[in-house]
Amino acid sequence: MFKGKELEKQVYEPKHIQQVLAEIECNFPGYFESFAQQSLGPVFSNRIQEYEKEQEVYREYLDLEALDEFEYDPNAFKSHTRKRCPIIRRCLMAQDEVMKAYQKSFKLATGRQLLDTVRNIAEFSISYVVDFDDEAHEDVTTYSDLGLEPLNDDKYQRLGVIGYGIQSSLLYGLYPRSFAHRSQNAVWSLYFLSGRKDFELEDGPEFLMVRPNEGTCEQNFFYPAELFGFYALSVFVMLELACEDLGVTFENRYRYIYLSRFCDHVANTHREDINAFKWSSEYVESQPWF
What we know:
Blueprint: H1 14-35, H2 40-62, H3 64-69, H4 75-84, H5 86-93, H6 100-108, H7 111-130, H8 134-138, H9 164-174, H10 184-193, E1 208-211, E2 216-219, H11 225-245, H12 255-269, H13 271-279, H14 281-285
Antiparallel strand pairs: 1-2
């Protein structure tokens, strides 16, 4: 996908989705084989412990009663967010060149805008998990079955500040049982698991965001929640079955923490490739879709 253009509608078509899934299923065993060279029990336990240290912070930040307190002074919520929201704090402290635009957008956002968006996300998460069923969740066959399309609504985003990535971090920070973490590594991992293929998309692989003026690209930070959620769930099911064969069983409440750890492995396997994509115009310009 090229920055400034819409994601091609073909990515929503059943035929295309099945092609992507088939490629992921073909490539998954190789990545899992290298992942399983380590003792997976401790690997997952360590990630769960890391997650739980931060989960309480997200719970406090997204607590509806706590959010109500800021209705008396919404401007104070901006400073509170800068200090108490883990993912936004990391974005504001990042030294990467690509984060400068984010940091500028945050400065321009008002406390009221941030408060309204965060409250809407918190309320969505609560309503979503009320009737959440683990078995039904893992049995979905289309992206629409997940019910994540509402997250595309403007009320759940704040231009330049809270997009799909931040939105996902908030949801995952509360309920890893129900929401996959749409981290940079997660989107990169879908690109590599799908064999780096463009599946005849005119603008190249859907998991990449190409910057034509710079000749570089990033993971697609505009990739929609419902499609990401569907592919993430599909990879999770593969991961769960593969781990069961090794005697490693999963707990539903940690569902997407397991997946997040595997996605980090896939992305780290290709760290040099990712850095080349992000910083080398020669590399990007050599691709057939550029």
